[in-house]
Amino acid sequence: MLTMSLESGLWTIYDLQLPLVEIDFSTYLLKEGYISQEDIENFNKAKALVRESYYLNRSNEDQIIEKLKEALSLLESIKPKKPFPPEMKIRFEELKRAIKEVLEKRDQGSS
Known about the structure:
Layout: H1 4-29, H2 37-55, H3 61-76, H4 86-110
Helix pairs in contact: 1-2, 1-4, 2-3, 3-4
């Protein structure tokens, strides 16, 4: 069963942070040449994994964690061609940090 902090962290990622980064990627970064189509595809795969983990049965915590780890790996693989504008970089880094925090909380809870 997910702990409340794990569940709230997952909710924050899915409902608050992911949509903002998605808007950045789809409306600005690709058009302006900051990221490649491959990066967009990796982002979309990561977004799908986060969505799947959000809607998984809460008793299947291991599967949720595996999907989040895979999503984080995909996000970490995104390398912009030019530095992101400051506000976009902050949102993107915050998304990755939030996923890392959820994973760390889970590791601490299982230790």
